[in-house]
Amino acid sequence: MISIEQLKVEFNAVPLFRDVSYVINAKDRIALVGKNGAGKSTMLKIIAGLQSPTSGVVAIPREVTIGYLPQVMVLSDHRTVLEEAQLAFEHIFALQASLEKMNQELAERTDYESESYHELIDRFTRDNDRFLMMGGTHFHAEIERTLMGLGFVREDFGRPTREFSGGWRMRIELAKLLLRNPDVLLLDEPTNHLDIESIQWLENFLSTRANAVVLVSHDRAFINNVTNRTVEISCGRIYDYKVKYDKFVELRKERREQQQRAYENQQKQIQDTEDFIERFRYKATKAVQVQSRIKQLEKIERLEVDEEDNSALRLKFPPAPRSGSYPVICEQVGKKYGGQVVFSHVDLTIHRGEKIAFVGKNGAGKSTLVKCIMQEIEHSGNLTLGHNVKIGYFAQNQAQLLDEDLTVFDTIDRVATGDIRTKIRDILGAFMFGGEASEKKVKVLSGGERSRLAMIRLLLEPVNLLILDEPTNHLDMRSKDVLKDAIRAFDGTVIVVSHDRDFLDGLVDKVYEFGGGQVREHLGGIYDFLRKKQIDNLNELHRSPTAASSGNPVAGEETKASAGKLSYEARKEWQKKLKKLEKAVADCEAGIEQTESAIAILEAQMATPEGASDMSLFERHQKLRQQLDKLVEAWEAASLELDEAKES
Question: Which pLDDT score is estimated for 609?
Fold first, then answer.
């Protein structure tokens, strides 16, 4: 479908990648991976036509449509959420207006015998069929389903987009992109501003309804669940694996071992050749052999070994000062802004040494409760911090508190103590500040780089209660592994607010779910929590009356969904079937409506003296009646199957 041939990109005469060739096929779901700076985002921009390569060709057939979601974009401020989302269907609006105009013309004209009239009917029929195929009659439902899947509620639809944060406005752009249903979706870190519920919805959408996808993401669970092919950019080249990410990691390890052996063999060969040349360079009897070896050495194509993955680096927190047995106790804690209740009657006790996760929809109160614990905002009820609790807090705004005049190295050197001082450069390298990057001033760092630097500082401070609010948003997989291992080995207490399931897996042993103004406790890890829910989209929890009203808010009672006994995968297949049947019913209903409209127009023409003698009108009328009968039969069958599926 899209062919990339001999692609080369250089910045200031330094090659980013060269001789890159591969093909994106229909229904490919590709994870584009590589270390930060390898050229993943550049590759997406080139495919999207927003950047030109130094040389090479990206061949895209004229009929192929491409949708591109960058990490950062300029957004409009002049429309409501719904109006902005409807821009995805501008082509349908134009076709609908054209059909209405033709329909009006058919009703007004009386030259039923003319060739132009018959041509108009044919054009109306063709465009009407195209309108139905494009989903022209049910796109409003599709907009609502997509916006709600990405975390919006109906009350948001009429709000101006300027009232939303950058993350939520990015969701609007993602919704528009998905609604356009392009042939190829290019997504650059689409999960950075999504919560767990929305990520799961997006996973399901991309897995079941999208066409070809090329995805850049540091969310390992997300790319494993979505992609079926992994393309790695490394050392300026690409390596194409027809497997999911987890399998790719195994194959890449084998490839690197082979590369290392070949590299070592070549280095030995080069050394032996150079030794021979040096030994016999000045002996006349060996002049021919020496010249031969020199030419041989010049012809050798030097092998490279891919960048080494240093995720094995272990970063250790300083020993945590001992705190009381219960670092945090909440009794009937509540918070509201005006008449808006964020949460109420929260009772929870966090024990020393526990590692817990706060999860739920954005805006459900996770960060608000963190601010209550930090004593940054007032609240109702009693919130008690235990004896000798020392809090280390990470949030996005922490990056703004760094001293801009210090270098990266000095920023860390000032807080590091003991043996850790000898490993500062290794630690900086693990968080993508290796080499010259460690000498950069803080003032020239990007927002993501500042966040990573603030995270390193936090890891070196002696605290016993770590509170991390979305700590992985700007970390690549290697850095996340380093951070996760460090937290796992930390002997203090940890609260993590995160949407990254892979990061939380094996890290936390208790989950607090925020939603519906309540906070519920779930014992076990993140996947235990998701399995208990036995649903594909956690937004259903907030639409279920029982979820908002049953039992003690932190008693851990589980919602009994209609398909609660189904496994996660079975539930996923069941929902996929439901969506397919719902679409079939909607298409049939739209077809029936349009066909009945066309029949009414013909019958009006047949009622005139001229039309009564036009046998072609009667033939078309008969064909339309047959078409209508088939549509009604299909609608009855699809409706019956849909009812049975809902009851199963």
Answer: 66
Is 547 a residue whose pLDDT tops 50? no
DSSP string, 216-236: E-S-HHHHHHH-SEEEEEETT
Dump strand ranges (E) for 388-449.
391-394
Dig out the tokens for 352 from the structure. 């020393």
Q: Which residues contact 1 (CB under 8 A, 6 or more apart)?
A: 23, 24, 25, 26, 61, 64, 183, 184, 212
Give the pLDDT confidence of 170-221 residue by residue, as tens digits: 788 888 888 888 899 999 888 877 888 788 888 888 888 888 999 998 888 8
CB-based burial label for 66 (10 Å; 0-12, 13-18, 19+): middle
CB 278 within 8 A of CB 378: no
Give the list of residues 6+ apart from residue 340 with CB closer than 8 angstroms, or none: none
Report the half-sphere exposure of 236 (CA within 13 A, side-chain side).
14
H or E stretch at 599: helix 568-606
Write the secondary structure of 335-401 as one string of H (helix), E (strand) and C (coil): EEECCEEEEEEEEEEECCCCEEEEEECCCCCHHHHHHHHCCCCCCEEEEEECCCCCEEEECHHHHHH
**Number of other residues whose CB lies within 10 A of the CB of residue 488:** 12
* DSSP-assigned letters across all residues of 76-140: --SSBHHHHHHGGGHHHHHHHHHHHHHHHHHHH---TTSHHHHHHHHHHHHHHHHHHHTTTTSHH
pLDDT in tens, 153-171: 888 888 888 887 667 877 8
Q: Say if strands 465-469 and 355-360 run parallel, antiparallel, or are unpaired.
A: unpaired
Question: Count H helices, E strands: the chain?
Answer: 22, 18
Using the structure block, give the residue that is written with the tokens 């897996």: 505
SS (H, E, C) 544-589: CHHHHHCCCCCCCCCCCCCCCCCCHHHHHHHHHHHHHHHHHHHHHH
Cα–Cα dist 66/186, whole Å: 7
**What's the rounded Cα separation, in Å, for the pair 218 and 476?**
5
- Provide the 8-state DSSP code for 463: -
What are the b/e assignments for 108-137, b being 16+ CB within 10 Å?
eeeebeeeebeebbeebeeebeebbeebbb
Q: Rounded to whole angstroms, what are the CA distances from 575 to 56, 476, 543?
A: 43, 32, 16
Q: How far apart are CA 7 and CA 55, in angstroms?
A: 6
The 10s digit of each residue's pLDDT in 237-265 is 888 999 999 899 888 888 778 878 888 88
Question: Do 447 and 400 touch, CB atoms closer than 8 A?
Answer: no
Number of neighbours of residue 531 by Cβ within 10 angstroms: 12
Both tokens of residue 556?
């851990």
